[in-house]
Amino acid sequence: MSDRVAQLAAHLNYPKGLLAGQVAIITGSGQGIGAEAARLFANEGAKVIISDIDAEKGNAVAESINKSGGQAICVPGDMLDAAYIDTLVKKAAAFGNGKIHHIVNNAGYTWDGVIHKMSDKQWDTIVALHATAPFRLVRAAAPYFRVRDGENRSVVNISSTSGVHGNAGQANYALAKAGVVGLTKTIAREWGPAFGVRANTVAFGHIKTRLTDAKEKGAFVTGPDGQKIALGIPTAQQAAPAGEEHADIPLRRPGTATEAAASILAAASPLFSYITGQTIMVTGGRNM
User: Fold this and answer.
1) Would 19 disulfide with which of 14, 46, 55, 84, CB 3.0-4.6 Å?
2) From the candidates 84, 109, 144, 173, which is the catalytic residue?
3) Dihedral through CA 261, CA 173, CA 231, CA 57, nearest 10?
4) Which region, left, alpha or beta, applies to residue 17 given φ > 0 means left and ψ of -120 to 50 means alpha?
5) Which reaction equations make up its catalytic activity (predicted)?
6) Which residues contact 50 (CB under 8 A, 6 or more apart)?
7) In whole angstroms, what is the distance from residue 140 CA to residue 96 CA?
């Protein structure tokens, strides 16, 4: 029996959790999918670093995890700030007693516009947030991943069906989300052979979050220069005859944030020990 098979066999019961004793940075984890991923990781024994631009929400998630018997800290900040990324990595390593095992690049939002009306600010912001920031975080954390200790390490980059198939009104988002697929594969090729680091992309379809909710509900984020960026999809674009709202999804419903987070946990866990460089489509069967 090979060492890796023996390690996997030894983990089959996971009495202390799938990620027991491991350290995970999850960006954009103050709410939505990121917050659910943080809770699931903590439930499986991980020490979780909550990264979010909203300190109040991030601290609330960390507090709820700690009250439930898990281990978490919040390191709030803006992923568009290169200095913050360095701080995030240093505090994560300190919390993890000198180790980091997992990075989940989840932070982001949409700033839509058709190509002929999209501004440079829209383009640059979304590409920086969804492509450049994940690269910078992985680069900053490289010393903690390029080690030969045989421990489970992974990078999970969050993408979207927009990055796989394109989407009208999302040229900036589609390009950035397609780009992280290439980043994922490159990490897998560079850090897999010598260090055993796995890298996978999770591409979401219709998941119930503020990004897919009705735009009329008024959700927004504060973007560069303090402007409010509206989130969601106009109700008119979601209109469909009764009973056909999700006809293009074989499971006939959108996914929940918890279901989305569970796919992230799976990708980081030792259950995926021989899976790397892949794009896992979490779509309820849409676009298969």
Assistant:
1) 46
2) 173
3) 40
4) left
5) a (3R)-hydroxyacyl-[ACP] + NADP(+) = a 3-oxoacyl-[ACP] + NADPH + H(+)
6) 26, 29, 30, 35, 38, 58, 59, 61, 62, 72, 73, 74, 75
7) 16
- Domain positions in the chain are 3-10+20-208+255-282
Q: In angstroms, rounded to a whole number, what is the distance separating the alpha carbons of residues 148 and 195?
A: 5
Helix or strand (DSSP H, E) at 26: strand 23-27
pLDDT per position as a tens digit, 217-261: 666 677 777 776 767 666 556 555 666 678 888 888 989 999 999
Q: How far apart are CA 209 and CA 284, in angstroms?
A: 15
CA-derived radius of gyration, the chain: 19
Q: How far is CA 111 from CA 64, 89, 118, 177, in A?
A: 30, 27, 9, 13
Can you give the pTM of this predicted structure?
Answer: 0.89
User: Which amino acid does the sequence have at 183?
Assistant: L
Token digits for 268?
């980081």
Contact 91, 66 (CB under 8 A): no
Place of tokens 């700690």: 66
The reply to whether 173 belongs to the active site is yes
Q: Which amino acid is at 50?
A: I
- Specify the DSSP element, H or E, that contains 201: strand 198-204
Q: Which CATH superfamily groups domain 3-10+20-208+255-282?
A: NAD(P)-binding Rossmann-like Domain (3.40.50.720)
